Amino acid sequence: MDAFNPFISELNLSSKDLINIDININKREFNKLNKTIENSYSDLSYLNLPFMSANNNPWVDTKLLINSITYNGKLKFHGNNLAHFLRDKKSFSVKLSQDNLYKKMRRFALIVMNEASLPAIFSYKAQEIFLGYRVEVDIVKVSINGINQGLYFFEEKLSKELVEKNGMAGYDILKPFDEKDHQYNSYHIFPYTWNIAYTNFKNLSERNLGQLETYEKLHKSNDIKTIKAKLDLQRLSTTEALRALFNDPIYGDNESLFYNTSTGRFSRNFRIENSFFPITKSDGRVSLDRNLYLIDEIYQNELFVNLIQDDDFRFRRNKELWRILSKKEMLIDLYKDMRETYEGAILSDPTHHNSGKTIVYDDYKKFEALWANFEVISEYLERTEYNIYRAYDEDKGNIILFENDSNVPLRLQGNGIDEIIAAKINSDLIPIKNSMRISDDAINNDLEITNMVTGKKFYYEF
What we know:
- The protein contains twelve helices and 22 strands.
- It is α+β, with helices and mostly antiparallel strands.
- The strands form six sheets. The chain has a seven-stranded mixed β-barrel with strand order 1-2-3-4-5-7-6. The protein has a four-stranded antiparallel β-sheet with strand order 9-8-10-11. It has a four-stranded antiparallel β-sheet with strand order 17-16-21-22.
- Helix 3 (118-131) packs antiparallel against helix 7 (233-246).
């Protein structure tokens, strides 16, 4: 019936100004794809569901016509989640010939819109704004052998071409494999996730610098000095700030790290799973990191749990959060432009697993959570709470204590004092009060108290 509705028909969709990709596959290669789906039922050990193992997902030959230009390449199913390959509309990974690139891209994915849409595009645009790292993303029209398949999310995939065109030549990529042939009742993270034997190492630099051994030692270390010496803290402070804003805890086999062979330091490849989750409060205080770093789960990435407990790194991350918050209006305008560009096409497409209305509504709710997160994080960073009180110390007698009850460091300046008192969290990532001794002279004059993230100043009058 939808074919006769001019607002959601294929005819109306064809009028939208979007990139057209026509995938051409011969019968023999098509049969290989069907066989791949059949083989996904051969092992139901993971949650008793079909699973698309990388070992059972071969490339098939294809030709692609992209806006009337022909490209030679190969194609296979994207992802191992059954939502990508068991329903009529399927997700694909594409690898073009090295001598025949599209927009300087060799690898990209075409993903069904129920799995990736406007939130994913927005996150990549935000990464480009704040990290200067550009990933090509779009919504495109796809057909197979001339038969309309509707809209897809287009995502450039992590590859040598991508990192090099972003000025990162000499970077390698390390991530856990994402096979599920095990007995653990967990989706993405397991006890052996960061073992060398379970690591997919893409040695793009073609240099042997002990990358795998360093990677494993880093994950096994609990010494924060050792950890920080091997991390690109500047880049990580931005990626972790973006993750905090979106509150999307990508973890386990969805995580990947860059290794800079020039500096010997690791950083995170930023990517979210098309979701923005609302940040929660606990006992009236913002609980920013517990969900993000899976503190309540059985398995955790101890590397990042250790890192976020470091006062210095958390301060760096929070400074980046404040910088991102300062661009809120620009980000809202970006979102409005995206809606104007794409929503009409999404509503016009009858091929989605769910309706276009459902996708648009779900996206709206995710962005609603994101705008709320701006307010919550602003509250978190601007909280400047402290106490000054007299106490008795057995060795020093009567003393005066300044207690920082904020989420950020505070700088104290006054008569005879210029000190910074850090904000503290415990091992559960819950804020705790941090005290330091100050003199009578410091409080007998106007004591200037500066929020080290926002720069706002307060004055204590004795």
